[in-house]
Write a structure and sequence with these properties.
3-stranded parallel sheet
């Protein structure tokens, strides 16, 4: 089986809507940590992702005219490019980076905002994130925002005008999976915008759990790029996100303390 050829959705009616545009795939992927641009493209194609996030401060998308350009392998006419502010530690840095991205991408207004708190944990600086979100929304950007798994902060970011809120599942690049599903569920149940788990996914089951909680999508990079076989892992993530979404829509059986026979005995023939 060629994983690249697998469908990204079994139901075209159930689509992710971001900034007024619908997507068949609910998996978003990053572009860092791959061996080369060829592997980057192969993994992204295998994932079925249609939205691809790019770290503007770390990746060449036209800033360096004579260097390899990431957009040569993930062209904007094939993917929705989601510039992000990875590596920014203040609101001012993040705002400047988004404005640079808009200039490089011909007025592109969709961005992923992340403002980090420190280099060791890469946890978000919530105060600076709120400040940057306020400025960017006022400046006409469509902001998808990385934050912690605090339901109060998630609600505030939505109130500020962010079009999607992206709580972490665990620290960036840790692969620990969803450490606080209760908080993620609380955010999902009270949101009026898409909620996408961002950071902490390590393997396919983590992605499936995020979707089973009702998240609208999952964003990942390290879990794919640092796998032994990134292309195969990317394909597995596509299936996991789809399976988790289908399970959420189907509605799981209730958990019970004791057994419940699949074949009840009261109608048994003896």
């Amino acid at each position: 089986m060629n994983p690249v050829q697998e469908p990204v959705s079994d139901d075209d009616a159930d689509r992710l809507v971001v900034a007024g545009r619908s997507y068949r795939s609910r998996l978003l992927v990053g572009t860092g940590k791959y061996r080369d641009l060829q592997e980057t493209r192969a993994a992204i194609v295998a994932s079925g992702a249609e939205i691809v996030t790019v770290a503007i401060r770390r990746t060449n998308i036209g800033q360096e005219k004579n260097a390899p350009n990431l957009l040569d392998v993930i062209p904007p006419d094939e993917f929705t490019i989601l510039p992000n502010t990875a590596g920014c530690y203040s609101a001012a840095e993040a705002v400047r980076t988004c404005r640079l991205a808009r200039e490089l991408l011909d007025g592109h207004s969709l961005v992923k905002l992340e403002v980090l708190g420190d280099e060791k944990t890469l946890y978000p600086n919530v105060v600076e994130t709120l400040d940057a979100a306020t400025t960017l929304v006022r400046d006409g950007f469509q902001v998808m925002v990385y934050t912690n798994d605090d339901p109060v902060v998630a609600r505030k970011l939505e109130e500020l005008g962010c079009i999607a809120v992206m709580p972490l599942a665990a620290p960036i690049g840790s692969g620990q999976g969803i450490r606080n599903p209760g908080n993620v569920l609380e955010i999902v149940e009270n949101a009026g915008v898409p909620i996408l788990v961002d950071a902490g996914v390590g393997t396919a089951s983590d992605a499936a759990i995020a979707m089973e909680l009702g998240c609208d999508g999952v964003l990942m990079n390290t879990a794919i790029a640092e796998a032994r076989d990134p292309v195969l892992m990317a394909a597995s993530m596509q299936h996991a996100v789809l399976a988790g979404r289908m399970a959420f829509l189907a509605g799981r059986m209730p958990r019970r303390r004791h057994a419940s026979a699949s074949s009840p005995l009261h109608d048994a023939i003896v």
